């Protein structure tokens, strides 16, 4: 009887290891969808959980059509030691990442190596309203220092330690009367699940500035928008859509408030 139990246990273990060894890459896509409420997914996933590739897609909501958000395919390798609690993952995409990214750590704490992600603004329309209405154009670059990541104590969300910088270059919108509105930089200094946000204009006709915070997914921001000298009349209608006008130092300014 004992010998039969041992043989059965060995067979079950062999089957389990075989399933894990050839686990399809689509399993990872299911995880991404659950964590993002279906707004992000892995499209055309190929290979296995341990070595595969896919494109990153977005959808307006669960069950919506999937649109590629980033150029190229992301290829990953994940060490099987993850089953024992040692995470060692490499992610590469020459068209979207300036250099491969390495994620290492345990089941609850990780470190993400520095890199930058190139984001074509047009792809954001795949996330739905209001981005699909604005029909943004331009190039975005999200860069980061070495980031420390950890599962939040309550098990909800991830705590981040480090700095991320979003550069928005030559941004435009189909709702704007001119092709290029300007270039901007947003810096996020992460401390746990909260980040201090700072926005400034690098150059352009539409001047944006302000400060805020991102706390457990809730975005709060207080800033201003105004037209550069010579563009007051051209951007008048667009500014009216952004918010309420007020006078600051004799110049018409729009208050940008998100709470």
TrEMBL record:
Keyword Cell membrane: yes
Compartments in which it is found: Cell inner membrane
Source species, domain of life: Bacteria
InterPro entries cross-referenced by the UniProt entry: T2SS_protein-GspN
UniProt keyword annotations, A-Z: Cell inner membrane, Cell membrane, Membrane, Protein transport, Transmembrane, Transport
Protein family (similarity comment): Belongs to the GSP N family.
Protein's name in the database: Type II secretion system protein N
Organism: Massilia antarctica
